[in-house]
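Subject: sequence -> structure tokens, single chain

Hey, anyone have a minute? Need the predicted structure for the following. Not urgent.
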Amino acid sequence: MSPSPVLGTRWGGRLCALLLAAAVLAGAAPAAAAAAAAGPTPRAPEGREAPVVLVGIPGLLWEDVTPEHTPTLWEMAGDGAIGNVSIRTATSRTCPTDGWLSVSAGQRALSERERFTVCEPAPAPVSDGSGASVPGYDSYIEQNLASPFSAPVGMLGQTVRDEGGLTLAAGPGAALGAADTSGRVDHYLPSARELTRERLEGVSLAVVELPELTRLYPDPATTTDGEGDPDPEDVPEWVREEALETLDSRMSSLIGALPTGSSLMVVGVSMDTGPSRLTVAMNGEMTAQGLVGPHSYLASESTRRPGLVVLTDTTTTVLDALGMRAPAPTGGRVWQLDERPATTEAAIGRLVDFNTAAVVVGASIPGFFSGLVALQLLIYAAAAYALHRYSDGERSKRALVLSITRVVALAGAAFPVASYLANLIPWWAATTPPLALLTSVLAVDALVVALAMAGPWRRTILGPMTVVAGATTLVLFLDLCFGANLQMNSPTGYSPIVAGRFYGIGNIAFATFATGMLMAVAGIAHMLIGRGRRRTAVVTTLIIGVSSVLIVGWPGLGTDFGGVIALIPGLAVTTMMIAGIRITLPRLVVIGVTSLTVIALLSWMDYLRPIEERSHFGAFAAQVVNGEAGTVLARKLGAMLGTLGNWQLTLLSAGALLFLFAALNRPTNWRIGALQRAYEYAPTLRAGLTGSLVTALVGFAANDSGVAIPALALTVAVPLTLSACVWALQQQERSPEPDTDIDGTECLRKA
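Reply:
Had a minute. Here:
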């Protein structure tokens, strides 16, 4: 393990700067961005005499580590490398058995249990001389090989044995983590209290379980009602503090037993009870002066974020410390080091804040999306009523209603980008973080709408729409250049607890970004065509669009496999419509082939990189080469179809399409539908909207997020279209018969 920044690559940073410069020259907002530079890849160490000791502590959080109750852990954190651990396994609820099996396999694993809400204890190993065997171990192997991740349970212990090493486990859970494929460990101790320096002699890998926190809760086998799960709130604070003091005492004794040269890793392998959170990771080396460390944050290529690693990184790091390699690709990467604050309090404080944000966002997501769906449907219903009810009547009242409708529509479209910009405000440090998060989102949303309606562009049909869409595009573009920090722990981004993605652009963010970009180029093209510069409009669209495709797909930046497939067709359709080129089947086939070619090229380039540096692209290319791609595609197809069961997002998509093609196209006393009238004033609006719908449809088919892609795309596109339609109706108030050519030139000049 060696110091190595993991926030990006040199070439990724240069690409970001070049793409942004191209966008500026094309008429985009003037900004510059660069990603952090990558350092050297860690090299495996030489063979070692002293053991690597892995200590698993289920349920240990950074908020538990204090100088008062855990002085040993606090001192270790002050000197060593520390970080949060995302403990997501093959199931959303990580019990100790799930965590230990994932460490054993180097892939997300699971342990089947009778009740999903109850964590069942690991089986007690059966002694066999100085060693022991885990009963029923074959069942763990079989059920995980059949799981979506095909986790090879026993890989860690078997690799150590195949390389001539010896394993030791202290505790039933530790035996699950250290056992070979036959379920056996070479040396076994019932608990960490029996571990001595003599016991560690000749051992290559020692895995130790400290279950003091799990013992705070009743054994589910002894409960009589069989209902629910023990609640952490049911345990008095002083009881947990006593358990932490006992745990810290055990840790102190264990450190005292370590021979010089030992490598110590402490990992919170699971939760003790309750929903998942981010747990503790730290490491150090035993020297003649005691336990020392590199005073850094832990990071890895799995997350590319300082202070955050994943549970399966543990397996790869243990083997690397032993000078060994896994026989097959694992889900984890070797721990690396990154800078951290100078003081222990500040370093741990950041880790606690990050966990707080993750927990709050995770708990807020159901309510957030319920509110988003309700808000969008309310906007559509109110707009449909207003457009019909006030199409005839008092002129002043009609003007007021239309003005309010336009502002509300822009606010609805700005809501997703506001959810990202809200992370510039430290809402997680507030007394009530959930309320602070909501307030921050609403405040930023109001600022974006104010910007859209503040300048002279508010008097044009696509001006405010272009500002909101452009802000959405620029914010996410810059976010990707600087490490995607705004997406992390955002309700419309990704969560380290859910652990679907840790870097790049998430599927929901992609839908927002792609739609914003296509609607923004439609607005820019309208302005340029209005000045008689159609060719410049086409070139501008291509520059901005190609820059967007590259940043979405480039490994280490967007790293979105399905996003490239979805964005190229939408961009091509928008560009052809702006250029006045007829869309035909042969041309659509060429677009499809181009999309696949770009994907293949990016995947092959990433595949040529070292395995520990590959992103999702290179991993998929390796799966194609190994013949495993079919399983992955089948899993993603099942996940995509399964999203149709999300009735909220499905309802949002259906409601948006119904409003777009029924309510806005419905003739009123203005004689023709509002959408058609908007197309008369701004023909490029049709190009942006059509491209957005194409991208949303392809994105639905190409991503495992399924219906979430069109739902969020329509959340941006339809309110923006509504704002343009309202402007067209306002113009009808002033000029009953709009006089416009196909480019909308006269209309723009009159505005």
